[in-house]
């Protein structure tokens, strides 16, 4: 037995309350190395008389764990428990395929003896409902739609910036171009979005800013006049809510725009500015900026990347914290938004995000917080900071298999299984799963213009744990290279067209089986014939097959939704979604 691979971490993603009173335990072993894992468990204060020694000893039970998945190097084992007195002590009995038997305890490995079974145990001292990680149930049944406001629709030409270009979806926008998209344009197309089936609107920043993308905030408390005003935004939120749609706003609390009142005061008054401590400034003067990439030495102040126009906020400063928390709660209390998406969230301190979580939860029950974190995110997902993150670490694996073929099917399911096991399921269920966005090349472009391939990858994403998100224009079959080309004006001529119909069908399937696909278990495997098989179990059972091989594969299925399936054959780039 590979004892170095045995692993369990108490009070973590390996030991957590899932629902009230229900404790889930996970155990890790080396891949294909262990035949059986059993849990030795009981209440720490329940005893029994040992007939051999005539002494009272801990009263325990044993329960076989089930293998729930296989990753690149590990097998994962799980068990669910309810304890009558809401407390537990436990350890693991591990039986290797080589015949070895060991106890894995809080003090390491031990020989399996009667005495060792009652000593050195892990403890879950009490099941505190207050400590259970909670994420909004409504979010688990949401299909998000990301809107880049400047390029979605121009509903009011009176607020067009100077130099606004004609609305040409075939254009390749430059970084400084404007096309006049605004909130009225979104209002004008709410019925179209409702017809598509989405029930969550995720807006890139709407606040006053100097750029077309608005990630260089000038005023967090106002709507950019290029988009409209607060009265129009209030109407948009109300109209969205009447259609059963949630609203998520995007904000940057890591840095602020150079044209903000605060930074302009620092530029004017230097160290004497009342806002000097709002930033990370090492020396003056602040201009010209020293860019180390150009060999100009250490910057005078910290920024996002080395972008001099985006000075980094000092979120350790209580004044900055209070200001940003006022921003966060203002848009909840005044306009009733449902969620925040937080840009560059990983570069802000955890202390601030914990205050942010408390403030937003007090402002609105079941409020959703999504952080932009592109890497492993456990520190943010312990119930006191974010609900979930932008799940790039998950969806990039999908792209690497389905679209660019960097990964085999076997590697894909192993990597996705590993990723799911990194977090509690209540966090996995509210991860934002997107195959493209304002930051990446469009799905169809990555698929080299192959609509079937793009739709297959999208269908796979829609069967996964987590909240699927459509980037505006995906339903129209829009293409686009990396930013800024992925931000082309929306092609409304393709509304209700062939690609729209296929995306609509996927969304309808996800919404119909929202409970199972939102909160059910997930098992990923590769069949002997090479198909990727997804099994989602919950209120219903969903079984999906995806052919990413080069040849048709025989498959007996009764599809609820399919692509490339005919006469018992699943074609390459095809999929079958079945509800059992």
TrEMBL record:
Bilayer-spanning residue ranges: none
SMART domains with a match to the protein in the record: Aamy
InterPro entries on file: GH (IPR017853), GH13_cat_dom (IPR006047), Glyco_hydro_13_lg-like_dom (IPR004185), Ig-like_fold (IPR013783), O16G_dom_2 (IPR045857)
Annotated ranges, domain Glycosyl hydrolase family 13 catalytic: 146-510
GO annotation terms (biological process): carbohydrate metabolic process
Keywords: Glycosidase, Hydrolase
Cited Pfam families: Alpha-amylase, Alpha-amylase_N
A GO term for molecular function: hydrolase activity, hydrolyzing O-glycosyl compounds
PANTHER family: ALPHA-AMYLASE FAMILY MEMBER, MALTODEXTRIN GLUCOSIDASE
Name the record gives this protein: Neopullulanase
């Amino acid at each position: 037995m590979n004892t170095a691979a045995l692993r369990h971490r108490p009070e973590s993603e390996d030991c957590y309350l899932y629902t009230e009173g229900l404790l889930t335990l996970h155990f890790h072993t080396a891949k294909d190395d262990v035949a059986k894992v059993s849990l030795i468990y009981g209440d720490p204060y329940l005893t029994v008389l040992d007939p051999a020694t005539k002494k009272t000893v801990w009263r325990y039970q044993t329960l076989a764990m089930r293998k729930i998945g296989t990753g690149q190097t590990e097998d994962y084992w799980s068990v669910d428990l309810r304890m009558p007195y809401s407390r537990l002590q436990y350890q693991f009995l591990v039986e290797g395929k080589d015949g070895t038997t060991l106890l894995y305890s809080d003090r390491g490995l031990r020989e399996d003896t009667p005495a060792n079974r009652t000593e050195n145990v892990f403890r879950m001292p009490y099941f505190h409902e207050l400590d259970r990680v909670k994420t909004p149930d409504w979010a688990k049944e949401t299909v998000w739609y990301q809107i880049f406001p400047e390029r979605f629709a121009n509903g009011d030409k009176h607020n067009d910036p100077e130099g606004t270009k004609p609305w040409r979806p075939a254009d390749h926008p430059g970084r400084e171009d404007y096309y006049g998209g605004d909130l009225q344009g979104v209002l004008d197309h709410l019925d179209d979005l409702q017809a598509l089936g989405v029930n969550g609107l995720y807006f890139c920043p709407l606040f006053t800013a100097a750029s077309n993308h608005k990630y260089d905030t000038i005023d967090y408390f106002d709507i950019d006049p290029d988009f409209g005003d607060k009265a129009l935004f209030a109407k948009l939120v109300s109209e969205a809510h009447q259609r059963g749609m949630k609203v998520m706003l995007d904000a940057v609390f890591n840095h602020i725009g150079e044209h903000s009142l605060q930074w302009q005061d620092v530029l004017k008054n230097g160290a004497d500015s009342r806002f000097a401590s709002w930033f990370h400034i090492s020396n003056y003067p602040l201009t010209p900026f020293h860019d180390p990439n150009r060999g100009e030495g250490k910057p005078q102040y910290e920024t996002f990347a080395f972008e001099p126009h985006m000075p980094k906020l000092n979120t350790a400063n209580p004044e900055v914290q209070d200001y940003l928390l006022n921003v966060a709660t203002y848009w909840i209390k005044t306009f009733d938004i449902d969620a925040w998406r937080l840009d560059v969230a990983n570069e802000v301190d955890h202390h601030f995000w914990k205050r942010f979580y408390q403030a937003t939860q007090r402002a609105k029950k079941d409020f959703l917080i999504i952080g932009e974190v592109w890497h492993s995110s456990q520190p943010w997902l312990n119930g006191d900071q974010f609900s979930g993150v932008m799940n790039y670490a998950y969806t990039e694996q999908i792209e690497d298999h389905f679209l660019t073929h960097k990964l085999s099917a076997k590697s894909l399911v192993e990597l996705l299984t590993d990723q799911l096991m990194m977090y509690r399921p209540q966090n996995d269920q509210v991860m934002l799963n997107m195959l493209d966005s304002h930051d990446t090349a469009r799905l169809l472009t990555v698929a080299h213009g192959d609509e079937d391939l793009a739709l297959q990858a999208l269908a796979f994403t829609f069967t996964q744990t987590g909240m699927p998100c459509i980037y505006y224009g995906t339903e129209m079959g829009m293409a686009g290279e990396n930013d800024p080309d992925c931000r082309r004006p929306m092609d409304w001529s393709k509304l209700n067209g062939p690609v729209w119909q296929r995306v609509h069908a996927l969304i309808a399937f996800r919404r119909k089986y929202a409970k199972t696909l939102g909160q059910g278990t997930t098992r990923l495997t590769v069949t002997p014939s090479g198909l990727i098989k997804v099994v989602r179990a919950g209120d219903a059972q969903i079984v999906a097959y995806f052919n990413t091989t080069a040849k048709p594969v025989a498959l007996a299925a009764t599809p609820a939704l399919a692509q490339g399936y005919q006469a018992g054959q699943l074609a390459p780039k095809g999929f079958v979604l079945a509800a059992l």
